[in-house]
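Try this one yourself first.
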């Protein structure tokens, strides 16, 4: 496939334009999903809601053997050159067999989430899983409260990512090893953040997501590069932006149940 140039001088477009960023973070305060979101499969609209608990995304667990087979996984593209996505997850209404959390979806994929079994909730990471093949499982601590913060941190220059958790949204602990993020056409090009909830036995309970927050250490630099012709831009980053814009044209717009 060749390779994308790392940097190249931006053409002079003859004027300056307002800086516009791709939508990313979401407080889920609207009754309509933001344009940055895309369902990984055709959604079951009876299993998700933005109105049952205003200010939260509610995901009800459907039966699936694993994350690869799970439907109603809500995704958005990662952005370069590095980024992290964090969710606040309320697990109070999970049922036995439920698995809910945050993932980076591609082949391979990785996730960090809460698994409930025999009334006990544990934080678990699954790294470098491939389709139906399980990845490297790392069991974390028992979750004794209902609220947990889950984070995926991706570096698109090294094509690696790590996952971490927190109970206070201040101190995060990495769980599991590094996820490989190949930038190829094996599944779709580039990874996607995903928020998921499924049950391996039957229809389960539900979780509420208070927010998804996106951070990029280079966001300010990225904006300058787009605005000024004298600046150099990262074409690998541009390609990812263009792919996201293309995918957004395919997003299904659904009203909340």
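Now uncover the answer:
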């Amino acid at each position: 496939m060749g390779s994308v140039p790392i940097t190249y001088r931006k053409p002079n477009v003859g004027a300056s334009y307002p800086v516009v960023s791709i939508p990313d973070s979401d407080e889920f305060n609207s009754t309509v999903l933001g344009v940055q979101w895309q369902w990984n499969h055709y959604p079951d609209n009876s299993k998700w809601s933005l109105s049952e608990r205003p200010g939260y995304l509610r995901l009800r667990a459907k039966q699936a053997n694993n994350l690869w087979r799970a439907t109603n996984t809500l995704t958005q593209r990662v952005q370069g050159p590095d980024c992290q996505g964090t969710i606040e997850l309320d697990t109070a209404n999970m049922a036995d067999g439920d698995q809910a959390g945050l993932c980076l979806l591609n082949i391979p994929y990785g996730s960090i989430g809460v698994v409930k079994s025999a009334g006990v909730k544990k934080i678990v990471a699954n790294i470098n899983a491939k389709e139906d093949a399980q990845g490297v499982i790392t069991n974390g601590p028992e979750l004794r409260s209902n609220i947990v913060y889950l984070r995926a941190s991706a570096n698109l220059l090294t094509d690696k990512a790590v996952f971490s958790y927190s109970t206070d949204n201040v101190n995060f602990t990495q769980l599991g090893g590094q996820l490989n993020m190949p930038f190829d056409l094996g599944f779709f090009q580039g990874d996607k953040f995903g928020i998921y909830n499924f049950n391996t036995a039957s229809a389960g309970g539900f979780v509420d997501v208070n927010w998804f927050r996106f951070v990029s250490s280079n966001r300010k630099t990225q904006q300058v590069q787009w605005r000024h012709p004298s600046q150099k831009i990262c074409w690998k980053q541009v390609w990812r932006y263009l792919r996201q814009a293309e995918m957004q044209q395919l997003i299904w717009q659904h009203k909340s149940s």
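Discussion: Confidence is low (pLDDT under 50) at residues 220-236, 241-257. Helices lie at 219-227, 235-248.
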